[in-house]
Amino acid sequence: MWNAWNPLDGMHSLHRELDRFLRGHRQEAGLRTAFLPGRAARRYPLLNVSEDAEALFVQALAPGLKPDSIEVTVQGSTLRLAGEKAGHEGVEAVAFHRSERAAGRFQRSLELQTEIDETQVSAHYRDGILEIRLPKDQRARARNIKVSIG
User: Fold this and answer.
1) 62 or 140: whose pLDDT is higher?
2) Domain assignment of residue 147, yes or no
3) What is the value of pTM for the model shown?
4) d(CA 72, CA 81)
5) CATH number of the domain that 117 lies in?
6) Do you find a cis peptide bond into 45, omega within 30 degrees of 0?
7) DSSP symbols for 81-98
8) Cβ contact 84:66 at 8 Å
9) How much of the chain exceeds pLDDT 70, in percent?
């Protein structure tokens, strides 16, 4: 049996992929998500997230931030980072031959996989890296249960 080529098959696949992409970025609609030239789909700042038994650790690569503009907010299991990346202060626009380092306000939210003890969160910014320690809520920590025999 011969199957005829249908040009709409490719369109359906493209529509699904585009819909999936837009669903992932809907919460940040209208906000600039990257300061990387040609990579507008990447979120800013770039993050590393790790954990141990007691806490989650977030390292955010965020050079050039104004330290007094950094906002770290934790509510339940959502981490929100916001701030402002410094611009070209002291340089007149007439002098620019090329400008690839964008500046301005940013915001990024990250849904964490566990509840956080919001009262114990700490953050430190040094050398362009924002380090955040998010202690797990007591209920979310793993517990060793002694098994009795007999």
Assistant:
1) 62
2) no
3) 0.64
4) 5
5) 2.60.40.790
6) yes
7) EEEEE---TT--GGG-S-
8) yes
9) 75
